[in-house]
Amino acid sequence: MRRYGPAVLLALVGAAILRVSAFSELYLRYVQPGLRPCLVVSGVLLVLLGVVVAVLTRTAGKQDHYDDLDQDLDDQDHYDDLDQDLDDQDHSHGHDHGPAGPRVAWLLTLPALALLLFPPPALGSYSAQREADQRAARGVGSFPALPSGDPVDLTLGEFGSRAVYDSDRSLRGRTIRLTGFVTRDDDGTWYVTRLLVACCAADATTARAEVRGADAPPVDTWVTVTGTWRPEGALGSDAAWPPVVDAASVRQVAQPDNPYEKR
Q1: Tens digit of each residue's pLDDT (9 = 90 or more) over 94-110
Q2: Which positions, given as ranges, span the membrane (predicted)?
Q3: Domains of the chain by range and CATH?
Q4: Could you report the per-residue pLDDT of 116-132, keeping only the tens digit for each?
Q5: Would you state the torsion angle of the CA atoms of residues 170, 172, 175, 177, taken in this order, to the nearest 10 degrees?
Q6: How far, in Å, CA of 166 to CA of 85, rounded?
Q7: Whole-angstrom Cα distance, residue 59 to residue 10?
C-alpha cells in the first residue's frame, strides 16, 4: 500500500481543491472569484494525475512480480539461492523507505485531509489587527457622485477613501450603510472592518471605520452598520484615519460568501 502514497496524496490535494472551488463557495475565503476556473482545472488535473500514478504503480508492481518468478526459475544453484537471500536481507535493511519514499511522507496527507474535511475560515480580526493601518498614497481630489437615496451602501474601502481624501466631502449629510466584521482596540474602541485583497488572502490589507454611538458586538461578529459620517481631521491627514461613523443602528448579519473586498 505504501507504494501508492504519491498517488493518494495527489488525489487528496485535487479533491480538496475541488471541494472548495467546484462544489462550494469556500474558495472565496482565499482568492478572488475570477480564479475559480483555474482552481477547478487544477483540482481535476491533480485527481487525474493521481489516478495515472496509481495505474502506473500497479502495472510496475505486476511486472516486478513476474520478474521475481522468472528469477526463481533461473536460480537452480543452491549457493546462488543463498546469495539471493542475503541480497534480499540487505535490501530490506538498507532501503527501508522503498521506492515510494519514507513512511513519514504519509504525514503530507494530513494537510490535504484537513483542507478536504475542515477548510480553514476566512481571515478575521487577528489579521486585521496585524495590519498597521497602511494605506496607499493617494492625493486629495474629487470623487464621482454618490447614488441618490439613503441609505447608500458603500464598501469599507470606498467609505475610507471618500472620508479621508474627497475634497467635495460627498459623504456629508448622507446616511451610509457598511458591512464588515467587528474588531476592537484595548481601550474599547470598536470598528467595522473588512479585508481588501488584490489576488488572494495572502496580500490582504485592512479597511475599517470606527463606530460610535452603539455597543460593540463580540469580536469577529459580522454586522451591518447604518449611520452618518463624522468628519475628523484635515483631508489626507493621519487624524482623518480611521474614518468615524455615528451609528443609528447595528444589525448582526451572516458572513457573506465572499468575505473580502477587492482592492
Answers
A1: 444 444 455 655 666 67
A2: 38-56
A3: 2-117 (no CATH), 125-262 (2.40.50.140)
A4: 666 655 555 444 444 43
A5: 60
A6: 84
A7: 18
